[in-house]
Write a structure and sequence with these properties.
Elements lengths: L6 H12 L10 H13 L5 H27 L12 E5 L5 H8 L5 E2 L3 H5 L14 H16 L3 H4 L11 H4 L7 H5 L3 H8 L4 H20 L6 E5 L7 H7 L4 E6 L2 H17 L7 H24 L6 E5 H6 L1 H12 L5 H13 L19 H7 L1 H7 L1
Parallel strand pairs: 1-3, 1-4, 2-3, 4-5
Helix pairs in contact: 1-3, 11-12, 13-14
Length: 385
């Protein structure tokens, strides 16, 4: 019997589901095959986890087919220019989501919403200006996720129609750490980290062009994107190769506070698809991974690229996000209009952190210690914390 995660069967099922055959450029094949193998051999998936990961891969493959069909029918999509994006990245749990959603309230910024990064290609029957079936599908997925792991809402504000990070767009190239957030995949992670990531970033650009074209059809395209993904810390050369006029806002928080929170998020995601997740393995994996990414980011900055970065402290973002935005806009030479400021203030009042349950965690839960994290992140802490 064919395994549910057999790559050839998944490709065939995607073709049947969509009645399409062109997946686009082929760089995704090898990482997809390696991911399918790792999910079978490493992840210790239970029945729910196996079904979830299979469906996620199938959704991605169907999306790729739909994307190429749209580009073939509407070749002008490839002419969309993604100019000077503002890219928020720092360690997870350092205020990136808060800052992203506040900045996205500026009517001059474009941003990808959760349902769009999960399903960047419209479903069959899509018409600009009419109800979008992707929204109901995304809301149902969020509902099911929180039903399986209700603790997640205290950790991250899941919302199908709010701006979210483009790591899920990168996932459509299979050059993404998203699967590692849900599953124990150390061998796949090590392999993926050694691969050329440029194909993933080039496909990210293609999907942003596609989303911008969709927004243009709906009358909501803007002059500049605000993006967000901590993932970019590890791949800044690739990011700037594909988006040479980007500006990065790097958020900072002492890793002795943020690493345990990162591990808590990933561990709760793992519990949805595995009956025996190991918190110490989660701690070791993510602490080492993020230390490596921060070291890469500092090396890139020190190689003559400092002018492309704006540094923001987590506590400043939390205490007064509008003042933080004012400093960012001053660095950009961008005006904070009264309309934008009003919308930002309204959003911060409606989405205050205290309206969600408290998120409790500790380094010790994940086999880590404050002294160990301080040692592993010593260079970063000395410079930014």
């Amino acid at each position: 019997m064919t395994h549910p995660l057999d790559p050839d069967a998944l490709l065939s099922d995607a073709r049947k589901a969509s009645s399409l055959s062109d997946f686009g450029e082929p760089s995704f094949h090898l990482p997809m095959e390696r991911l399918c193998s790792a999910l079978r051999k490493e992840a210790r998936l239970n029945e729910v986890g196996l079904a979830t990961q299979r469906q996620r891969i199938l959704d991605i493959l169907v999306t790729r087919l739909r994307v190429e069909a749209f580009f073939a029918e509407q070749p002008e999509i490839a002419d969309e220019k993604i100019g000077a994006p503002l890219v928020i990245c720092g360690l997870p749990r350092t205020g990136t989501t808060l800052l992203h959603r506040v900045l996205a309230e500026d009517p001059g910024f474009d941003a990808a919403l959760w349902y769009e990064v999960r399903y960047p290609a419209p479903f069959s029957g899509w018409e600009p200006g009419r109800p979008d079936a992707r929204i109901s599908a995304a809301k149902e997925e969020v509902r099911m996720t929180l039903e399986l792991a209700p603790e997640l809402m205290a950790i991250h504000p899941f919302d199908a129609t709010s701006p979210d990070e483009e790591i899920m767009l990168l996932e459509h190239s299979f050059f993404s750490r998203t699967p590692e957030s849900f599953c124990h995949l150390p061998e796949f992670s090590a392999w993926l980290d050694e691969q050329d990531q440029l194909p993933g970033y080039r496909y990210l650009l293609r999907l942003l062009q596609f989303l911008q074209w969709q927004h243009r059809q709906e009358g909501r395209a803007r002059d500049r994107w605000v993006l967000k993904a901590p993932h970019h810390l590890g791949f800044l050369p690739e990011l700037f190769t594909v988006f040479p006029d980007a500006t990065v806002i790097q958020t900072h928080r002492d890793p002795t506070h943020s690493i345990a929170s990162i591990c808590s998020l990933c561990f709760h995601l793992e519990t949805m698809g595995s009956d025996d997740p190991d918190p110490k393995a989660t701690g070791a994996h993510w602490s080492a991974g993020w230390a490596s990414y921060l070291n890469r980011a500092m090396a890139y900055r020190d190689a003559g690229h400092q002018e492309h970065f704006i540094d923001v402290d987590f506590l400043d973002t939390v205490r007064d996000p509008i003042a933080c935005v004012e400093r960012i806009y001053a660095a950009l030479g961008r005006e904070l209009t009264p309309i934008a400021e009003g919308q930002m203030r309204a959003w911060t009042e409606q989405n205050a952190r205290e309206k969600r349950a408290a998120h409790t965690y500790s380094l010790e839960q994940f086999g880590l210690s404050e002294a160990g994290v301080a040692r592993d992140f010593a260079s970063y802490r000395a410079r930014f914390c």
